[in-house]
Specification:
Length: 227
């Protein structure tokens, strides 16, 4: 996990839903999409609550595309902002979830075209393969670009199993102040941010920390519904 990420106050429940979805996809041989409220019956996992057949869970990123099939669709997820608030690293790009009803989150068996490695988990099996692939075989591009190739099975790598989620469960937090401090690879600029923001996260932990410490539950919503 990168040190400037943020997540929703409801993360515990979101991770549970992700685990159920990823495990169902791992045991479902049918490529059709599944509604989260109608998950198929599965055999309980023995190693991980996320299932026993995965290499990497891509939980935090700057954007990814949706494959055509192999999805678990979470409808009416109150933690998901309306589509006009959903953004990737390219702020002008339309979210792939624009064709779904508002408040939809999607879990996919295989992450596609992922950008940024903000937060991920890796299995022991995956760690061995990743150390070989990026440690001994080659590392000739930014880490997230190589990780994407390693997951997808491109650029000379075999494909690995990397479930993903959109919108992401972890995203960058941008504090109030000069935008030049956002990243050490950003181009120098004089722009100033008047208020902090975390993209794609409604009940930001960082921005609700004082309320959480006081035991309050009327959390500030960054992206309240417009209708």
């Amino acid at each position: 996990m990168e040190d400037d990420v943020d997540w929703d106050v409801r993360l515990k429940y979101l991770l549970k839903d992700f685990a159920l979805s990823a495990h169902a996809l791992a045991q479902n041989s049918d490529s059709s999409n599944i509604e989260f409220g109608n998950l198929p019956q599965t055999t309980p996992p023995k190693i991980s609550p996320y299932g026993d057949d995965w290499d990497l869970l891509w939980l935090g990123h700057c954007g990814m595309k949706l494959p055509g099939a192999g999805l678990v669709v979470h409808s009416n997820d109150p933690s998901v902002p309306e589509p006009q608030y959903l953004h990737s690293w390219d702020k002008d790009e339309r979210t792939p979830l624009g064709t779904y009803p508002a408040h939809t989150r999607v879990v996919m068996r295989q992450s596609t075209a992922s950008v940024c490695s903000l937060a991920y988990a890796i299995s022991q099996r995956g760690a061995r393969k990743l150390l070989y692939g990026l440690g001994l075989k080659k590392l000739d591009a930014p880490f997230d670009v190589m990780l994407r190739a390693w997951c997808q099975g491109s650029d000379g790598y075999e494909q690995h199993i990397c479930p993903g989620v959109l919108p992401q469960l972890f995203d960058h937090h941008r504090r109030r102040g000069p935008k030049s401090v956002d990243s050490d690879i950003s181009k120098p600029n004089e722009a100033y941010r008047d208020k902090p923001v975390t993209l794609n996260i409604r009940w930001s932990v960082r921005m609700n920390m004082e309320k959480m410490l006081r035991g309050e539950t009327d959390y500030d919503d960054q992206y309240p519904d417009t209708s």
